[in-house]
Design goal:
Elements (H helix, E strand, L loop, with lengths): L2 H9 L2 H35 L10 E3 L9 E3 L1 H34 L9 H17 L1
Helix pairs in contact: 2-3
Length: 135
């Protein structure tokens, strides 16, 4: 098997394609939640905290040597990122929980037994007739 055909087989497997779609949708979903956090939730939190914008919080550490720029530690952006991650993780958890609940409902619903074939019905009738004759 050549390298190209082996790669082609790998690339078109259902799991790889499903994973790629999941990654793309996950990235888009992450952007939506990030926007919700940055544009809706954090400004609301800032208003509740007296107009504080967390992304603007930082500490400037003076340069140790002349000619160097001072270091800026942006802990507000870090706090925003942690809140962002927490909300994304919670949203994904709720999504997976909902999907799992739907799967469980489908698994719990017993499938109706298949109707016997015409041959089985005929054999059942023959059996019942033979039993009736033996009595």
């Amino acid at each position: 098997m050549s390298l190209i055909s082996e790669f082609k087989e790998f690339a078109v497997k259902g799991n790889v394609i499903d994973l790629a779609v999941g990654v793309v949708i996950g990235a888009a979903f992450g952007k939506i939640v990030s926007s919700a956090v940055a544009d809706v939730i954090m400004p609301s939190v800032g208003l509740l905290m007296g107009g504080i914008d967390l992304t603007g919080l930082s500490v400037t550490v003076p340069a140790v040597m002349e000619g160097q720029k001072p270091a800026v530690l942006k802990y507000g952006v870090f706090a925003q990122t942690i809140i962002d991650f927490t909300l994304i993780a919670f949203a994904i958890f709720m999504l997976v929980k909902g999907v799992n609940k739907l799967k469980r409902k489908q698994e719990e619903a017993p499938a109706a037994p298949p109707e016997p074939s015409a041959e089985e019905k005929l054999l059942t009738e023959i059996r019942d007739l033979l039993k009736a004759q033996q009595r």
